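On clarity, I found the account of how folds are encoded harder to follow than it need be. Since the whole study asks how a given chain folds, the encoding of that fold should be made plain. For illustration, here is how one protein appears when written out as sequence plus structure tokens:

:::
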Amino acid sequence: MADLPIAHVIHSGGFYGAERMLLDHCRVIPGQHRVLFLDAPPALLERFTEAGVECHNLSGLRALQAHLRQQPVLLNAHNFKAQVLALLCAWRLGLPLVWTQHGFTPRSAKQKFYTWLSLRLCRRATIRRVACVAQSIAQLHRQAGVAPDKLQVIPNGLPEPCIPNENLRDPDAPLVGFVGRLSQEKGPDLFLDALIPLCRQRPTLKVVLLGDGPLSEALRQRIQEAGLELQILMPGYQSNMGKWMHRLSVLVLSSRTEGTPMILLEAMQAGTPIAAFAVGGIPDVIEHSSSGLLARPLDSVELAGHITELLDDPDLGERLGLAAQQRQRRDYHLPRLALRWQALYRAVSEAWNR
């Protein structure tokens, strides 16, 4: 019997890491993919449609269930709200279900409850496999009692780069960057904790925060109060990060929590030197002093020290960037990871057919 078509379910408000992963996934992983968005903004659907991915925008459980009644599919659900609705549909319609766990952001009591519930729901038989993007995420599931044979770690990966591997970095005009959603879990405030003192010490240093989010105005105000609005720029969300990656002297990841960040892989692909907190799946990907520099979680002083090392020693940055680039091509190259996804989908589909 032929493999089932794959229907991805996701609740999303914009094009961030999980959405980038999903778009690449649909374009590279073998199989017939479609994406079922739950109340997504039109721009997000346009982005997937322009890339040649079939997608539908649905509202609520009833609409999702009605769509899934049309033909048998293998469901892959990608965040908590979508996962709960997909679980109900899979149970009611008898469809095979995979949960992809991109990571958790348990900041508030509500989010901590969602994390607790998500981990425990993964024990249900209706969920055939749980795909975790990092070993640290899989460990949380094992600690919550999820059967080890139900878990599979498949890290995020990147397809071939769409732009030439062109080094645009200027050692005489260093540029340090943060890339990501300007929200608490991504730690842009911790980024400023590290960079504001460096900017005061180095008047020629330029810094960019690339992204948007709920902390935008508070961050902008803090930069203005520090008198650094000419050094620390906030250009907003960028749809194409390729050339930025080849311009940055250092990419800084100051996240409080992470899975396997797509922007980390993009920096590795471009050979961009990396300084990051050792949180989530980042230490799975970056080895300190071998392919990047890692600081203790939330320690902005240590992080600033690592940024300084990379700025003061371009040869060190080049060596670490090259090692990271080679690691990305070896271990986080999506066409290679496609074989693992294909095997997972096939195993779930065959078990359902039996």
User: Anything to note?
Assistant: The first strand starts at residue 6 and ends at 11.
